[in-house]
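Homework help board

Subject: predicted structure for assignment chain

Our instructor gave us this sequence and asked us to write out the predicted structure in token form, then describe one feature. I got the tokens but I'm not sure how to describe them. Can anyone check?
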Amino acid sequence: MPMETPEDPRPRGAHISLQSTQSRDFGHGWISGAASVALGALGLGAVLCFHYPDVLTMPELRRLYPIAVVRALLHLVLVAAYLLGVLSVCLRSNKALGLTGMALTLIAALLGGSQVRIGDASGTGGILGLDWFLLNMILYSAIYIPLERLFGLHRDQAVFRPSWRTDLSYFFVNSLLIQITTLMTLTPAMTLFDWARLPVVTRIAESLPVLVQVPLVLLVADFTQYWVHRAFHVFPVLWRFHAVHHSAEAMDWLAGSRLHVVDAVATRALTYVPIYVLGFSRTALAVYVVIVAVQATFIHANVRWTFRPLRKLIATPAFHHWHHSADRAAVDKNFAVHTPVWDRLFGTYFLPDAWPAAYGLAGGRRMPEGWLRQFLHPFRRAQRDGVTGAATPPPTADTPSPATGPEEV
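My token output:
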């Protein structure tokens, strides 16, 4: 059998294939093709939101959109998607990416493009949040991709690293179902714990300045989430669902989206109970939701900052990276999301002056790839890969050596 030789970057004839070994370096059409597909998909999604606002958009956001600006941006996105697709087709022998981006753009144009008419929005709002996904995707990509390229901890980790499709699926599903999961999160607290609300307490909490309420909400929520998170590590039936989150073997902003729906809904629902019972204002709750979204994403990011002066008070990427470490010494440590105070108080704080050497499930255990397979995995009776018990793995002879010391900020 002949040995493989380094790939010749020159095209060897046009073809269309989902699999390709052609170079992804600049100048070979892969970057422009990937950008064309991404922009084409975003543009098509936006056009569909115009067509079916009552089904695909959130009423809270719909009232805030500057339609003229959105149309202008949509036009630029579709034009850029098409031109990048043409460029990829010209540069790359495998035409799949470029043609896919052009096809998505063409479908969006046939459905009305930037001049699409707004569909019926007379209802109270749909059950899906496609607009929420599109906004998040644009915002997070624009912030974190450059950030991780410029200040990356693992500089050799590509944007499209292994398992990115699985994590993108989680990002898509979690964003798309935001209204359903919000309903499932808020309803239990409001239905089952309304009796626990004391008018005197709720009046005091709601009357406090927002600048006072928000830190209190963060502390209360983080204290609750600490114990909920810890329970998901301790009890085997809960660990089956939480193991999905820990199965990520690469850390970046997208990896934080890998959450089983049972894990996400249960954690958020229980975290919301004390916030609702104490009666904090809607404004404070809205600010908290924004902070927790930003914080939960940032602590997974592939950045090399440690924030050493603040690391005992605020959860940092270094703090949370160790929570995801495959190192036996770090298992069942660093449960807090906002402040390590709870971990220090309850004996689960672990933050050496180094970064983890590897991430994922301890003991070399693996999770099947793909959103659907991982969704079904915790429900399987026979778990042959060992992801069934609590998080603590059996002792091993050696533990991974720590990575190079982190850069301080």
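Reply (TA_rk): Your tokens look well-formed. For the description, you could write something like this. Confidence is low (pLDDT under 50) at residues 1-11, 384-409. That's the kind of observation they're looking for.
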